[in-house]
Amino acid sequence: MHAQRGLWLFLVPSGSVLTLVLLYPLGYAFYLSLFNYYLGAEPIFIGLGNYIALLQDERFWSSLRTTLLLVGASVSLQFVLGLAVAFGLYKLTFATKALNVLLFLPHVVTPVVAALFLRWIFMGRFGLIDAILIGLNIFPPDWLGSPNWARLVVVLAESWQFTPFMIIVLYAGLNTVDQSQIESARMDGAGNWMLLTRVMLPAIRPLILFVLAIRIMDSFRFFDTIYVLTAGGPGTATETVTIYTYALGFRLLEVGKASALGVLTLLITATAIALVIAFLYRREKGAF
Amino acid sequence: MKPSLHTQMLLFLALCAFTAINLTPIFWAFMVSIKQPVDAFAAPPMLIFTPTFEFHYSVWVERGFWRFLLNSVIIAVAVVCISVPIGTMAAYALSRMEGAKARGILFGLLAMRMFPHILLAIPFFVIASAIDLIDTYLAMVLALVAINQPFTVWLMRSFFLDVPRELDEAATIDGASLWQTFTRVALPVVRPGLWVTSLFSLLLAYNEFLFALVLTGSSTKTLPVAIAEYGAEDINYWSLSAAAAIGIMLPIVLFMAFMQRHLVRGLAMGAVKG
Fold it and tell me: Does any CB of chain B come closer than 8 Å to the CB of residue A2?
């Protein structure tokens, strides 16, 4: 036990950085959220005024709805596509390694660059899709300029970057399923669909919950793709809570209100995390 | 239970088609970057043209994108050099502590990983403005080191857990101090893990956008901020921004080639990255 005594010293450097650079600014954000504070002007203490204003602000509710819609749509799409491809790779007996690497590439591309790549696909007139459609004499819709198409493009862009993540994690998971379980299901005459849904998916449930939780959390705060693709537009059609916070803080310079919105986002995220962790830990010990 | 050759071929073709669609955006951007604007704007898209690398040269050399690359590299390397050593120390301690205490800290780290970055960006900006740190490498490096800590600690801890405790105990019995045990016994065993963690941290810092947007200025601007501004400009610069975008991606492709074997572990944990 002699060796254990000095161990906490090893935590000091990392702990100090986290305290100074994460926890202190976090506390400061809470503090700022209580002020009517335009950057450059004198801050005025208004208590919970910013929070009350936000809860009555239609733009806040609309950004929250947009966030939920985009997160729900893109995480579902990523999961379904990811699972289908992972199962396909699992069944394939050759060339899986090469395919894995190629499939994974979009995930590591810098998000801003990925968003530009997608913008050059969907761009009006000169983008790849429009160029092809016009070549075929079909009049294309305004992908980035009409609300519903723009939302779809944002979902596709998110999915382009994160389906590979789902594929690689789910593929790794499928490969851990006990071979004897699969054999015995086969003996009972289970087809591929039965095998996947009745045997394999239940076997990797902790992994699925974990990966879904992570993706939901991350897409909730996603910023880069939307900022580059649509900047929240047209109008506020693709404005998520994060984009709205950015606009408040760095365009309108309403630092106090933006902090309050950030705190609200944290509360919403924390609730989601608490639910997920409670769920994970009640059902499955050791999912992390 | 061998699947038939016929279904294997169909499956293979389907997966190839999916992969091809997936890679189209990258391929298209590359095509644009080596086309004259006249050709790039043609509808339907032309597949036969004279390729040129003048836009790659122009954007990286004449238009000074190399400076942004330099900024990105300075920041990313500094982040790794600070974040990985301090994170590794913490990870070692957490892998050797009693379960309950360590678990509390690990959950705290996980919670920090979930912070909305935008909530931190606001105080970062206000504080950095107040103490004149906007547009300095220091502000950016500190911010990214902190954001990176939870990921680094969780990932390194998973490598230390694979090191048998008997090794530590043997070293302690031989009279090694805690620090000696850490540096001479545990660290050499986890060297592959250190590489993986460093490379993932490097990637994270290289790709980061929001904090760079808020904290950097004309003299420290990183590649993602530069390309976001540039890409939004006039469509006439299309070939140039495509060339820049492809160039930004190249180091990452190299990274992939290097990392292949370690991807899954980094990712399952990378799920914990911030």
Answer: yes
A19 found inside a domain: no
| Banded pLDDT at B270 (limits 50, 70, 90) | low
Domain extent for B18: 5-54
Cα–Cα distance for residue pair A277/A209, rounded to 1 Å: 10
Core vs surface per residue B145-161: b (16+ CB within 10 A) or e: bbbbbbbbbbbbbbbbe
Pair (B29, B86) in one structural domain: no
* Residue A94 lies inside a defined structural domain of this protein: yes
> Taking CB atoms and an 8 Å cutoff, what residues of chain A touch B29?
116-117, 120
ipTM of the complex: 0.87
Which of A60-69, A277-286, B198-207 is predicted with the least confidence, judged by mean pLDDT?
A277-286
Is the Cβ pair A262, B14 closer than 8 Å? no
What helix, strand, coil percent values describe chain A, rounded to 5? 75, 0, 25
Inter-chain Cβ pairs, chain A and chain B, closer than 8 A: 269
Are B197 and B248 in the same domain?
yes
Number of domains into which chain B is organized: 2
Residues of chain B contacting residue A91, judged by C-beta atoms under 8 Å apart: 3, 11
For the stretch B77-121, pLDDT in tens is 999 999 999 999 999 999 988 778 888 898 889 888 878 899 999
Beta bridge partners of A38: A254
Residue B129 has pLDDT above 70, yes or no: yes
Nearest to B122 among A18, A29, A288 (CB): A29
Asked whether residue A43 is domain-assigned, the answer is no
pLDDT of residue A280: 63
Contact A93 B89 (CB under 8 A): no
CA distance B273 to chain A (A): 10
Instruction: Give chain A positions within 8 Å (CB) of B26.
Output: 105-106, 109, 117
Tokens of B124: 């970062």
CATH number at residue A263: 1.10.3720.10
Say whether A254 sits in a helix, a strand or coil. Answer: strand
Supply B246's token pair: 């492809």
The CATH number given to whatever domain includes residue B118 is 1.10.3720.10
The pTM is what?
Answer: 0.88
Element (H, E) at A45: strand A44-45
Residues B195 and B211 in one domain: yes
pLDDT digit string (tens) for B235-268?
678 888 889 999 999 988 887 777 776 666 666 5
pLDDT confidence of B64, banded at 50, 70, 90? confident
Boundaries of domain holding A160: 58-283
- What total number of domains does chain A contain? 1
- The verdict on B226 and B170 lying in the same domain is yes
- B12–A92: do the CB atoms touch at under 8 Å? yes
